[in-house]
Amino acid sequence: MQRSCTWFGICVMLSIFGSGIFVGRSYAESVSPDEARLLRDEVQEMFYHAFNGYMQHAFPRDELRPLSCDGEDSLGGYALTLVDSLDTLALLGDKERFAASVEWIGANLRFDINKTVSVFETNIRVLGGLLSAHLLASDYATGMRVPSYDNQLLHLAEDLAYRMLPAFDTPTGIPFGSVNLLYGVDENESKITSTAGGGTLTLEFGILSRLTNNPVFEQVTKNAVRGLWAYRSKLNLVGAHINVFTGEWTQKDAGIGTSIDSFYEYLLKAFLLFGDEEYLFMFQEAYRAAMRYLFTDPWYVEVNMDSAAIVWPLFNSLQAFWPGLQMATRS
């Protein structure tokens, strides 16, 4: 199991960071070693300014409020910033803080709380943070192994994922946007969710299935992606928001940015990570449609998913990931 954890950890990191390896090649070659060290040190200083500020003024709340200099529980009340920072501590080689954080989380974090949380945010930040830290802390090959570690973060991740499963109990398989960690989905919960919210779950849940030998986590997230894909338009475009009970698109704006962006990202990365060609097929079809209907040189617009008529001609910041994704496709 430990060896398989190593390979999954490597795959996750490659799939997440690998797409950016070649993007800055010409720029990197123009930076001297001294300049590179200065930039590295500046990034490290910025991280520790933020991390130490959080630990001093906000921990164990979720986030630091920079003006009042106190903490708030903005997501679920489970030391979100600390969980979110684990992999960065590891990347910086900070074994002491990484080990201390892993030990604190393993001993103190619990999810049997009456909190309604975002399925999307909880997945990418908390579940993903716990899984990546588990892989790093449990394997000598990572250089970050924590001697006292005994799979506590994996057990927490599994418990959290189980508490999120009620969100997937919909006719389409596309999950609700929010779920209560103690009571499941509230009867008044909105049936409208974003495409990104329903389609950005496969990596974390798929890894969890492999680490626990429990296929249910991967199955529900794959069904969610299939559900979204089933309601695509004849142009192979998806909209921004959908009714998880009826499959009706409540916002038919198709784009690569807000509310849709990581749907594309996770299709490709799920194929790269798991080798499942169904994800590759969906990505290729979706990518071709995006390049045909959304690309208006030199940027991307938003169009009606049925007619391809432009509905929003301006660039938005959440489109910035796209070149990195294209590098991963070598296109």
UniProtKB/TrEMBL annotation:
<comment type="similarity">
    <text>Belongs to the glycosyl hydrolase 47 family.</text>
</comment>
<dbReference type="Pfam" id="PF01532">
    <property type="entry name" value="Glyco_hydro_47"/>
</dbReference>
<dbReference type="InterPro" id="IPR044674">
    <property type="entry name" value="EDEM1/2/3"/>
</dbReference>
<protein>
    <recommendedName>
        <fullName>alpha-1,2-Mannosidase</fullName>
        <ecNumber>3.2.1.-</ecNumber>
    </recommendedName>
</protein>
<dbReference type="GO" id="GO:1904380">
    <property type="term" value="P:endoplasmic reticulum mannose trimming"/>
</dbReference>
<dbReference type="InterPro" id="IPR001382">
    <property type="entry name" value="Glyco_hydro_47"/>
</dbReference>
<keyword id="KW-0378">Hydrolase</keyword>
<dbReference type="InterPro" id="IPR012341">
    <property type="entry name" value="6hp_glycosidase-like_sf"/>
</dbReference>
<dbReference type="GO" id="GO:0004571">
    <property type="term" value="F:mannosyl-oligosaccharide 1,2-alpha-mannosidase activity"/>
</dbReference>
<keyword id="KW-0326">Glycosidase</keyword>
<dbReference type="GO" id="GO:0005509">
    <property type="term" value="F:calcium ion binding"/>
</dbReference>
<dbReference type="GO" id="GO:0005975">
    <property type="term" value="P:carbohydrate metabolic process"/>
</dbReference>
<dbReference type="InterPro" id="IPR036026">
    <property type="entry name" value="Seven-hairpin_glycosidases"/>
</dbReference>
<keyword id="KW-0325">Glycoprotein</keyword>
<dbReference type="GO" id="GO:0016020">
    <property type="term" value="C:membrane"/>
</dbReference>
<keyword id="KW-0256">Endoplasmic reticulum</keyword>
<dbReference type="GO" id="GO:0044322">
    <property type="term" value="C:endoplasmic reticulum quality control compartment"/>
</dbReference>
